[in-house]
Amino acid sequence: MPRKFIVGGNFKLNGSQDSLATLVEGLNKGSLDSNVEIVVSPPFVYLDQVRKSVRKDVAVAGQNCYSKASGAYTGEVAAEMLKDLGIEWVILGHSERREIFKETDDEIGQKVAHALKAGLKVMACVGEKLEEREADKTTEVVFRQLAAVAKHVSDWTNVVIAYEPVWAIGTGKVATPQQAQEVHKAIRGWLKEKVSAQVAEATRIMYGGSVNAGNASTLAKEEDVDGFLVGGASLKPEFVTICNAKAKM
């Protein structure tokens, strides 16, 4: 069964009520490929606004959530709260969460498991830093991050893996289609060996890292690239073009 192409827009710490209303209006009026699953992820305080105003064929994701349902965890948001708002997805393990907020592989694995249990679908992020790539440790790092998820997750049905080389996020540098395909193929191989052939075949693997309207259609041609997790470009009109990249092939 072919894997449905998926494009996520991670707005990060950007936006206001007015700017997101304009962005949503652009999506609502845009001609979007019906064969592509599209998910947008605004900051927590705008989730409800975007969910209520965006077209029904575009889903909404939280940018993070905690591994507990409730309690004395000031500043945290539970997966159950996202679900209560009608949010379908959450992004977990983003490199900015790992680097800036010091989230560990195991913490991320626990978060993924809890989010799935709460009924959310998860974009689980993995990826190496520049020095790790230059030291030829890309797969070592990515496999370690995947293993931390596999330790806590047995059912991968609602997991999408987002491969984001850290050196390409927001830098303007993009992994070549060959570099992206190489790692995506390795991830699929790891899933086949460590989880199952069925999970390896079914699991979608997104690429993230300075994806834009100019490079999306080329990246989308690669066999194991099943979508994109888009950062800065998701805040621009070109996001519609990226969502339609597969249709241009």
From TrEMBL:
SUPFAM superfamilies recorded: Triosephosphate isomerase (TIM)
Residues in the signal sequence: none
Pathway info: Carbohydrate degradation; glycolysis; D-glyceraldehyde 3-phosphate from glycerone phosphate: step 1/1; Carbohydrate biosynthesis; gluconeogenesis
Sequence intervals crossing the membrane: none
MF GO annotations: triose-phosphate isomerase activity
Assigned EC number: 5.3.1.1
Hydrolase among keywords: no
Gene3D superfamilies cross-referenced by the UniProt entry: Aldolase class I
Reaction(s) catalysed by this chain's protein: D-glyceraldehyde 3-phosphate = dihydroxyacetone phosphate
Keyword Isomerase applies: yes
InterPro entries cross-referenced by the UniProt entry: Aldolase_TIM, TIM_sf, TrioseP_Isoase_bac/euk, Triosephosphate_isomerase, Triosephosphate_isomerase_AS
UniProt superkingdom: Eukaryota
Keywords: Gluconeogenesis, Glycolysis, Isomerase
One GO BP annotation of this record: glyceraldehyde-3-phosphate biosynthetic process
GO cellular component, one term: cytosol
Record note on quaternary structure: Homodimer.
HAMAP family (UniProt xref): TIM_B
Membership in a protein family: Belongs to the triosephosphate isomerase family.
PANTHER family: TRIOSEPHOSPHATE ISOMERASE
Protein name: Triosephosphate isomerase
Organism in which the protein naturally occurs: Entomortierella chlamydospora
